[in-house]
Amino acid sequence: MDVLGNYKSAISARSTDRDITKKSQDGGIITTLFAYALEEGIIDGAIVAGPGDEPWKPEPMVATTKAELLAAAGTRYNISPNLYLIKEATRSYGLDRVGIVGVPCQIQAVRKAQLYPIGLRDVDDKIALALGIYCMENLSYQALEAIVEDHCNQKMESVKKMDIGKGKFTVYTERGAVSQMPLKLIHKYVQPGCNVCLDYVANLADISSGSVGSPDGWSTVFVRSMKGNAVWDGAMAAGLFETKPMDQVKPGLDLVKKLATEKITKNQKNVDARKTVGLKADGTPKGLRNPYESP
Amino acid sequence: MAEKISIGELHLSGCTGCLVTLADNYEGLFKLLDDYADLVYALTLVDVRHVPEMDVCLVEGSCCLNDKISVEELKEAREKSKVLVAYGACAAYGNITRFCRGGQWNQPGHEAFVPISEVVDVDLYIPSCPPCPQQVRNVAVMAYLLLRGNDEQKNLATAYLTPLMQLAQRGNEACGCDLMYDVINQGLCMGCGTCAGTCPVRAITMEYGKPNVNRDQCIKCGACYAQCPRSWFNFDVMNNYEGIMDAIKGAMQ
């Protein structure tokens, strides 16, 4: 399979809803799609990364209104275990049609849960819309704190927005200060689990979206499944997005492909290196587990 | 429609939750029985006294070593079935029966309960307590394709069932600790929350994005480990999720 996964169309897009683009990270694609799906009854609720008890720490939540979606909009560069709520959403919240957003590994978990519902009873047919966001790597909350407070020299609670782009991690504060650090310096803070991930653009999502490849304030969208296609067409017909063809925007799909290839090549090397990480007493290689081979 | 396969359920030391789970497929169970499988042996559902020959035998419950009949029936089921499935956590991992210590009415002498793989070879595991009806349905459809399908269907069924067969090879001990040993300690956890969402007894919470297992609450059902996307992930099957789900849905209509 291609490094970008199977997709039916790739578009550069931005939400036409200014309430959303004011709060969203880039083009407001995920928030707008969930708001549309809620409105149309395609989903009864969506599992999103809501606000947590510490500044910039996300907490998975079930959003059933546009206001709740808006409260969750924007990227917080640390872990939100959204799958934690997947069974809860169909029980305590009684949802029949669940929307869920996640980074590639989380969307992989969603698809595994559907094909192998081992402990997730009555969930497989209730996943109505799985939206993916591009992800190179993720951080623990403490790692993000170290980056923002130690490297960028800003208090977590004074930060208005964080952004990754053009090789830099950028922090914007409420009072207008902008702090930056080179992206390559954050690699040592990345959670180790990301180093074996072979997916950059959420290949298994119904629709996936991220800023890479599109101009500032816009997002690159991959429409992947039949379901995703139907939802995207509906949202387009409702006038919720302005779009540009992917081959007419800079830097374009080539950059997405380049980053996806880099991530997958690097991480495949890590997966392979794990096979021979140590030596047994007799000198033969001793390896770590390969999560893609066997339990 | 090709000839149906035969499925039986052998009931050992379990709570009947697994058997009820089979019925929890509702009209799906009728569809399975109409088109794909004959139920040839099952407590309360089939009036057959002795273990018959069958294609797939689902074994519910752990094996009580103090109960001669249990041990004998399990061995007999192994001999008479092509595929023996540890159906549910007790059969696969011992589950709650791991904590039995005898002294209970009306068989105070029954105190030694082991996962069935300590007595016979097991081909495939369906973990969790109780197992999910949809997982049993998927295994039943795939077993049908494996035994009665064309080459393409056989390949798909083999790819689908392989990880569940590998789980059976992995061993008969599982609990929340496996997440620690095989996922977190191995540097594989990325904090998706599947384990906490899966746990039937809510023994797992997510602390700063990583699972924390309350070991006193854990019942050793193995669901968290088996459901974790980093315990195993077969790209060939999951990348075709849309087609496979449509196929299963189509088979059940």
UniProtKB/TrEMBL annotation, chain A:
Its EC number is 1.12.98.1. Pfam families: FrhB_FdhB_C (PF04432), FrhB_FdhB_N (PF04422). Residues 96-248 form the Coenzyme F420 hydrogenase/dehydrogenase beta subunit C-terminal domain. One of its GO terms (molecular function) is metal ion binding. Residues 11-87 form the Coenzyme F420 hydrogenase/dehydrogenase beta subunit N-terminal domain. Residues 270-295 are annotated as: Disordered. Keywords: Iron, Iron-sulfur, Metal-binding, Oxidoreductase. InterPro entries: Co_F420_Hydgase/DH_bsu_N, FRHB/FDHB/HCAR-like, FrhB_archaea, FrhB_FdhB_C. Its cofactor is FAD. NCBIfam families: frhB (TIGR03289), PRK09325.1 (NF006807). This is Coenzyme F420 hydrogenase subunit beta. It comes from Methanoculleus oceani.
